Amino acid sequence: MQLNERSNQDDPKNHKSLKRICPFVEDPHDDCYCFNMNSHNIRLAIHYCQQNFEECKVYKRISKDGPLGKPSS
Questions:
Q1: Beta carbons of 20 and 51 less than 8 angstroms apart
Q2: C-beta of residue 40 within 8 angstroms of C-beta of residue 29
Q3: 60, containing H or E segment
Q4: For residues 8 and 71, what is the distance between their CA atoms, to the nearest angstrom?
Q5: What is d(CA 17, CA 36) in angstroms, rounded to the nearest whole number?
Q6: CB count in 10 Å sphere of residue 24
Q7: What does pTM read for this prediction?
Q8: 12-68 per-position pLDDT tens digit
């Protein structure tokens, strides 16, 4: 394997700890902890935006709006 090639094992998408992250991380809402990272919410983002997202009050509220937080029609 050449230096600039990566194996599938090195791909972050294949890392077990990264497989369960909040679905809103890729397209966060304004009040998501990961939307505006600062010293006040970094601990919350680390905790809730990864494996514990189902416990997050923001996730729970947004999820009630429909699939991926988009209002139901």
A1: yes
A2: no
A3: helix 57-63
A4: 36
A5: 23
A6: 21
A7: 0.60
A8: 555 555 568 999 999 999 999 999 889 989 999 999 999 999 999 999 999 887 555
| Nearest-angstrom CA–CA distance, 47 and 20 | 12
pLDDT of residue 7: 55
Q: How far is CA 70 from the centre of its chain?
A: 16
- Which structure tokens are listed for 73? 């029609």
Distance between CA atoms of residues 25 and 16, nearest Å: 17
User: How is residue 48 written in tokens?
Assistant: 């809730």
> Can you tell me the distance from the alpha carbon of 44 to that of 37, in angstroms, rounded to the nearest whole number?
10
Query: What would you report as the CA-atom Rg of the chain, rounded to the nearest whole angstrom?
Result: 15
- CB contact at 8 A, 21 and 28: no
Cα distance between residue 37 and residue 34, in whole Å: 6
Q: Which tokens belong to 65? A: 């709006």
Residue type, 41: N
